[in-house]
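tool=predict chain=A
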Amino acid sequence: MAGACALYTELRHNQSSGSICSYGYDMLRKRFLMIALLLMSAYGTFAQETPPPFFFWSGGDLYRVEPNLVPAQLTASGTISSPVISPDESRIAYKQAALVGIEALDRVEAEGEIADIDLPADIAVLDVLSGASTLIAGQPEDAALFEEGTPDNAIVRSAPAWSPDGIQLAWTEFNFGAETPRLMIHDLTEGTTSVLVPDIAMTVTQGQAPSVRWGDNLLIVNLSADAAGEQAYLIVSPVGTQNAAPRLAPVPDDYVLDVFPVEGAEQTYVGVFYASGRWTLLDGRTGVGVPFRDVPHLLSRRSPENSLRLRFDITPDMGMFWEVLDTNMAYTGDPNRVTLSPDGQAAVFLGYPDFDGAAIWSSASNAISAVPNTGDDDGELEVGAVIWGST
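tool=predict ok
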């Protein structure tokens, strides 16, 4: 959900992402304290767990958290954003600020017109075991941006999205200054990159590449620049055939928090999740809204039958929260602030011991373990995203 200047402002000031958009920061802290008191009353002193390694994003870099819960830094560029783990949890794909854009910022003020656009980015993949990163999509050899006497030549990209089988990556991109984006596919087995949809029917606004989500048998391109305005989506098959291009009227006093593929028993739906906690489901084949009996749940892709199930909702007093069904675990946060372990039996989340801290909750012990050196205090890592199992 990175906005036009979010990536570069974020990189320059080392600010974290993943905040709950619908509530003010001070109010969030007050509500966090309410939840924390409830948890401490219910659980008492939290025992330390020894979970399998997971990852988090902070200040433009990735960290591995080993079983001793001590974070180990994996990257040092400070230019990474939007990390997403592969379905087999062996690789992490991410967007990275391109050098041509960073150099351009050194030549101009990062305010006014330049602050209203998204600048060039590359796509890379990190191997979880070795910690080595591989560039998947870079800039042209003669890349240039804001150089006097030289035409701009650079590529703006969205965050990457994994195919369900973990073999391919998708993203949208356009040449800097162009009006129409394209949908790209990279095959990691073949090492090839191709154009899936050459001309996406939308006008680029604020220089931002539309986001992509990949579900079973479909890709969802979010064409909406304003989450509070009309919502428009492009639904295509993995071979580029257009399924539908639905448009949803704006909802008064509400806005779209995120869009997710929702796997049903017989097909994949487009799940539109609003800041009010309500859902709209669209048929992935036709784009038509469909009725549903229960809201979508977050669960492990690897072990869906045995996975814990997380439900998201909202209350006037606490704001957005998630709860683990059939347990007494609940905490403030939207879907971007919590994820599950590969086996689906534990959750890692943001907000404990304070808003930018990370912690793990285990279903086996019903206990929370805070990740050391994360949080809001001086010298601590302000965590903006957590990455563990594929969900």
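The longest helix spans residues 25-43. The first strand starts at residue 54 and ends at 58.
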